[in-house]
Amino acid sequence: MYCMNCGVKLGQGEEKCPLCGLRAYHPDLKRTPGTPLYPREWHAPEAERSGWRYLLTVFFLVAVGACLVVDILLSGGISWSGFALAGLLTGYVLLVLPLWFARPNAVVFLAIDFTALGLMLLYINLKVQGGWFLSLAFPVTALYGVLITGFAAIVKYIRMGRFFQLGGGCVVFGCSAMLLELFISITFGTRMFTWSLYPVAILSTIGLFWILAGIIRPLGNAIRKKTFL
Question: What long-range pairs does 208-216 form, CB within 8 A, spacing at least 24?
Fold first, then answer.
């Protein structure tokens, strides 16, 4: 017997499809207990990451030491190496720090990543005396940090309504382009609405499609068969 929704083969006595969850029912077949064809729960084996985290940590430490030594020998102090160190430390937080945890929480680490990125931009702004951190770097980093971390939390902790989540996320990220252009305009005195309306229109159209997929059941079922959302 096969699932009437997604076509997966069902074992004898299956009460519902293990893939899409559709109730298995056939009026002419008597259901008797049997061995399931698929495991009820599956956990991906944990990847071996200890070697990579030590290797990458050594790589970053060597890069930090090399930048400091070369900068001190050439300029007699810390000049350009400060920018290199800020970039290396930020890269370490983004790429290597999650490897030190058995099950890193993506939501927590996204917040940490955006915090590290904001601190790096603050350091660069102070070194070059740019005056753009409070008007551009900080609000943009905070804006997308909140949006991306919040979207990751919704996807992680709310299992229902995937189409509405995708649709709403596309619309929100599209509209955020206007805020980004506003911060650029405030900082550099450029004109508003020169490019931001394009991502608003494109992402809002994509978001509307996903929302319609959540409303129109046949369309949503067709997409689920292809993407398993």
Answer: 208/167, 208/171, 209/167, 210/163, 210/164, 210/166, 210/167, 210/170, 211/163, 211/164, 211/167, 211/168, 212/167, 213/163, 213/167, 214/161, 214/162, 214/163, 214/164, 214/167
